[in-house]
Amino acid sequence: MAWLERELDPAYATLETGAGTSTIVFAAAGTEHEAVTPNEGERERILAECERRGVSTKRVSFLIGPSHLVLPTVPQRPLDLVLIDGAHGFPYPILDWWYLAPRLRVGGRLLVDDCYLPPVAALVDFLRAQSGWEVAAAPGRRTIVMRKLDDASPAFDWSGERIGGSVSFRHLPPLRRARAAVEHRVLESRLGRHAAALARRAPLSRISGLES
Predict the structure, then answer these.
(1) Is 193 helix (H, G, I), strand (E, B) or coil?
(2) Residues β-bridged to residue 64
């Protein structure tokens, strides 16, 4: 979240699959934002939380439904920044990328969250092997930022890229990889999940200290 708060510009057109704390951050930044969520209740909870915090939602719109059904039907406006954090089962992260990549401007950035999970890691592995994408940042143990370099379509044939695999933090440098593996085991414990739930209730001013 700290990376988003730093990098977002009110002039940006943005979109995310999934909705939650990140949606509040986009709203607070004032971007022209769309959040895709299958849950109408999620929309209502976010709007209520924004109202409670005094965050305007006048530039935020919600697209209700599964992203693989919604994204092909909405107007294809150019996007400056995209966050993929919706369904994590295979092939949904890849479908989100497939529908959103053509809409992302050259030079625009794609955030992929929970990229240690195999279905998401498959997308990250693929993008890291493509000349049309580069790693722009790794702001947290679960998140990578890719920059789009050109509008080329993927090759029709597999060229030997390593794709997917077991739970892994291989998108991080070696030392951070080892640390992230330990943190994951701790934070995914019952105590770690309880602490994360408490942190999500923190005031907006403290959100920047959390990972997405």
Answers:
(1) helix
(2) 37
Per-residue pLDDT of the chain (212 residues; tens, 9 = 90+): 889 999 999 999 999 999 999 999 999 999 999 999 999 999 999 999 999 999 999 999 999 999 999 999 998 899 999 999 999 999 999 999 999 999 999 999 999 999 999 999 999 999 998 999 999 999 988 999 999 999 999 888 877 777 766 677 877 888 888 888 888 777 776 676 666 666 666 665 554 444 44
Q: What are the DSSP calls for 82-144, one per residue?
A: EEE-S--STTHHHHHHHHHGGGEEEEEEEEE-STTSHHHHHHHHHHHT-TTEEEEEEEETTEE
Please name the helix (run of DSSP H) or strand (run of DSSP E) that holds residue 191, with its range, or none.
helix 190-200
Dihedrals phi, psi of 40, to nearest 5 degrees? -60, -35
Question: Which residue in 211, 208, 181, 212 sits closest to 83, CA to CA?
Answer: 212
Domains of the chain: residue spans and CATH: 2-151+161-207 (3.40.50.150)
Give the DSSP H or E segment for 146.
strand 143-148
**Lookup result for tokens 């789009």:** 148
Residue 61 CA to residue 51 CA, distance in Å, equals 15
Q: Which residues pair with 79 in a beta bridge?
A: 104
Place of tokens 């989100």: 96
Is residue 104 within 8 A of residue 115, CB to CB? The reply is no
